[in-house]
Specification:
The complex is a heterotrimer of chains A (248), B (377) and C (385). By secondary structure, chain A is α/β, with parallel strands linked by helices. Helix content of chain A is 38%, strand content 25%. In chain A, the strands form 2 sheets. In chain A, strands 7-8-9-4-10-11 form a 6-stranded mixed β-sheet, with helices on both faces. In chain A, strands 1, 2, 3, 5 and 6 form a 5-stranded antiparallel β-sheet that branches. In chain A, helix 3 runs parallel beside helix 5 and helix 4 runs antiparallel to helix 5. The two termini of chain A are 36 Å apart. Chain B is α/β, with parallel strands linked by helices. Chain B has a 4-stranded mixed β-sheet, with helices on both faces. In chain B, helix 9 packs across helix 10 and helix 13 packs antiparallel against helix 14. The radius of gyration of chain B is 28 Å and the shape is elongated. Chain C is α/β, with parallel strands linked by helices. Chain C is 68% helix and 8% strand. Classes of the chains: A alpha/beta (248), B alpha/beta (377), C alpha/beta (385). Chains A and C meet through helix 2 and helix 3 of A and helix 1 and helix 8 of C. Strand 5 of chain B pairs parallel with strand 4 of chain C, so a sheet runs across the interface.
Chain lengths: 248, 377, 385
Amino acid sequence: MSSASAVETLDLVKRFGDFVAVDRVSIAIARGEIFGFLGPNGAGKSTTIRMLCGLLTPTSGRATVGGFDVATQSEAIKRNIGYMSQKFSLYDDLEVEENIDFFGGIYGVRKQRLQERKDYVLRMAGLEDRRHSMTRELAGGWKQRLALGCAILHEPPILFLDEPTSGVDPIARRNFWDLIYRLSEAGHTVFVSTHYMDEAEYCRRLALMYGGRVIALGRPDELKRELGLRSMEDVFVELIGREERRAS
Amino acid sequence: MNLRRTRAVARKEFLHILRDPRSLALALAVPLFLLLLFGFGLTLDVDRIPTLVYDLDHTPASRELIARFDGSRYFDVRGYVDNYGAIERGIDRDQCLLAVVIPKGFARELDAGRRPAVQLILDGSDSNTASIARGYAESLLAGYGFDVQAGAVQRKGGIDLNAPVRPELRVLYNSRLESKNYIVPGLIAVILMIIAALITSLTIAREWETGAMEELLSTPLRPSELVLGKMAAFFTLGFVDVITSIAVGVLVFGVPLRGSPLLLMASSAIFLFGAMCQGILVSALARSQLLAYQIGMITSFLPGFLLSGFVYSIANMPPAIQVVTYIVPARYFITILKGIYLKGVGLDVLWGEVLFLIAFALLVFFVATRKMRQKVA
Amino acid sequence: MWRRVFEIFRKELRQALREPRMRIVLFVPPLIQLIVFGYAVNLDVNVARIAWLDMDHTAAARDLRAAFEGSGHFRILANPVSERDAQMLLDRGDVQAVIGVLPNFGRELDRGATAPVQVLVDGTDSNTASLISSYTTQVISGFAGRRMVNEQRAKLVASTMAAGTAVNPGAPSVDARTRVWFNPDLLSRNYFVPGVVVNIVALVTIMLTAMAIVREKEIGTMEQLMVTPVRPLELMLGKTLPFALAGFFEVALITGAALIVFGIPFRGSPLLLMACSALFLLSTVGVGLFVSTVSETQQQAVMGAFFFFAPAFMLSGFAFPIRNMPLAVQILSYLDPVRYFISIVRGIFLKGTGVAELWPHMLALLLYGTLILGASALRFHKRLD
């Protein structure tokens, strides 16, 4: 496994009893890349992300994140990544600023630096005048940005975003992707999972997951060209159709 | 009320329960476990009171008195000391509850026809046991005193006198005076109450928390149907608990069931229904599970345990509190339980209590459905 | 490390204080238990309610009745005229015992034979029944003794007058001089209220700790925390410290109420009380943590906590004396941390005992707390599987 990759997996497998959630996934993500993980619900995206974050132990196979092995060096990984879960996982009964203070403190961001990062995050999320609002009062789009902000306070080189745009309106989704671009330009590696096909276009490279397996891997324009289709949605429908036919 | 919708809710609840094996096991196993543990473990019988004896006289008379303490089932003479310090230490360390001090010259005083005083020292920190110990000890001394009197009279007068008055004691309902005979019936009530309130209040509060309740209420489902449907499943569980508890009480603990089993089950069912409605009301009021639990505990477990007459007799409580107990449904149920189990009485004696339980159940049901409806509007 | 602990602690504290219901939880149960155990529960059987069934109607029967009434242990509430009426009174629970004087009572006494007195006691409450039996025996013994002495005196006087010598009849007996230590009036509240301290602390800390952690699991923030560099130990400390503080608060609150409102004596060292509370909190917080590691939902957490708390409470000696339980159960109670703290608290409040007498209990608490915290720590890991 080469060290130029930010994230690498080799035949990664996760089994829950008889059910194979992740079936021999092998991908490599370069530094600074925006990598998309697409697929319908239940395809195994979240499970893969969780393994990469050190939350689940792989059944077999290997993976490294930032050069650290997920099975044996998960603590080191956790210091170097930011994670945004599907549920946005913020504390509803804390103020915006208190959530930021909390995660900043947990990640060990120095007091001085935390002040700067806090201002940055509030500006990025557009919540400067809402620092003392209760988090539960924020609408979906704001929560989403706050959650992202809390994940990057410690300037992690690698970011894992698990369906960060679910349940958010299209305009907020677009704005969110602007943020992701900026982060990528600043040098962060971003691993995003989503079930919105139009967002596939925004990724530099992507993997299509279905039934625990990666059924396509590459750049959006490459994939479209190979199949002679115009949109990622069509690509998706075609490939999944093939899978289903193969299965039956 | 539409029976079909009610049935749909009931079926959903059944599935919820059946698919949550943990909660199911808890709901069925916990009452059984509690019943067994407390039935075997709990006793209010006070006997074998640890006693120390400090004999300053060392005469046949003092030894005779000591023998009476030793031979009594109420006292367990743990040691013979020869100074007060040992008594202090024994009491401080919770090693003895009673110390009997026989003064020097005890026998002499008796022979002279006087009344020597035997000192009884009690550890008052356990006031209940101490009260009872005191009663037994003083009674034992009175008995000894009487025998001494009788002996003296006989010796002096050479007359053969019978004890003029003899008590013929008959203990009703619980001839072997085993406290488990009244603890076990009472436990059934306590357990049911806890489980009923706990289960119902928690599940509904959880639905509030997850938002599923709002969804349910936005359907044509009427609040009363929702309440009944939810209860159907829990009621079945609770009733299984009732049957088990009754069976265990009779078979394992040998608590006599002298009255009508039918009346017992009917009143249990009514009580259960009321307790569950109470649980539903609590959860309709409390939006969070934490609060539902706390309220449930405060309004069902504590009063049920403390104010129902289960352990602590209501007649002894201050009048103000006695008034409060009138609104504790458990109080009536306990009376019914003890009545049916031990006294073998029936509806003719217990009609008042049964009536209250019915009224309570209906009232709470009505209020609970009202509350549910308000949440929608 | 400490920074992380502090952050978690601060977050928990903020969340807890913001929750208006938290205030309810901290104040209402203590209040209720104090009222109930401070005022309501009264175990003393001082005065038994009895019915008097006089089927003899002689002076002797009336004397016997006077003896009962004058003893201070009995209150005659009813005077039924038939055995059936008397039975009804017992069945309804209106009286606790019926004293029945049979039709030939007076005549038998005059004849010098033994006259039986029927004592029917409601045995449903066995302790009360035993005590009533004892009191009855006492009163009847006293009555019989006096009658006997009087008869003897009469006979002796007659024979003296016949023989011409003076005889001192003398009536020896034994007096009981009872001294009750620590609680001279044998007030139930002195027995119970110190126990309420223990009860509340256990209830509050176990429940709140367990639910706070499980709630985070349920809403998903636990996963978020697991992804951070925070260590399991730091997470445990941060999450449990606020509730330990709540525990201390409760100890102070209830002790204050006990002393000021109820006049419960406090003869020992407040410092020792606090130190032992800390030891006890190790256990309760540990239990709360342990419950949270085996529960996925708050409902399970509550049931789990209850599953521990109810037996612990019942077997702790708070309401039921341990010494009378079957041996197997007594051994079981040694595993109950509440038991030790109850002994400690009663000792400190009522007996003024110190470390010299209480050290075995303190040691037990320390051991238990360490064990349970250790077990919880092992189960607490930063993985979802």
